[in-house]
Amino acid sequence: MTASVMNLDAVGSRSEPYEVTWTPGEAALYALAVGAGHDDPLSELHLTIDDAASPTPQQVLPTFALWPSQQGVTRRLQLGTFERSALVHAEQSLTVQRPLPTSGRGIATARLDGIHDKRSGALVRISIDVVEPDTGATLWTSRLGYFVRGAGGFGGDSAPSDPWPAADRPADRTIDFASWPGQALLYRLTGDRNPLHSDPDYARRAGFDRPVLHGLCTYGMVARALLKDVADSDPGRFRSIDARFSKPVYPGDAVVVEVWDDEDGHSFRVSGPGGGVLLDRGRLRISS
Question: What is the overall mean pLDDT for the chain?
Fold first, then answer.
């Protein structure tokens, strides 16, 4: 196995601008892959129907923005040398300036914000800005973190921890939903074909009993459930979401989302079977 070595000199570097595009069908496929219409096919038709003649105008789940802009981002930045199986999603945030159109085009630029020493590995933080091609106006910004196993111990600074405003009290409410056994196979059709989510042998080499669900699939499922709970599934009210990945979800697992409300938004934490935390330090902001 190739030793994991990070390219510390690349911190602060930017990728060449690259084009991102999307279509109504891709937006609808994404919505289906993160569970829209799974329990009730008629409940979220505004997210799942891409027929321009439909009486229900199509809208786009905000977290779909991560699909076109983050594909292949590690290849656009000179992060270092490591096996693909050593890379796991650690954290993710998304801020949108306006609802996504059902089809569109943007220009993205990725920046390597930091490589932090976590001793057992390295935490790589990347930001991506996507702008309108003609005006340069920001469409969305995402920030993501990858943990590279075996790449730590180089003497760098550990990443600072952002505050999490969840109150030290029981959650105001919970949201329950379940993934399904074949979900990773559907989600991979959105473009993320990492064999960790489909190949049993590859998953075992990566340290898992069987293929796991894509982290961004879990992220999208939670965002969709929260948007439905606090904003009547209205993508136009979405502003931002942040979360940290703690443990993977296996296809078929049921999850529980604990929600704390405050004046500025909604904090959340996601647990799986047996109470193990899957996502934590979560934060959703919506408009009134």
Answer: 93
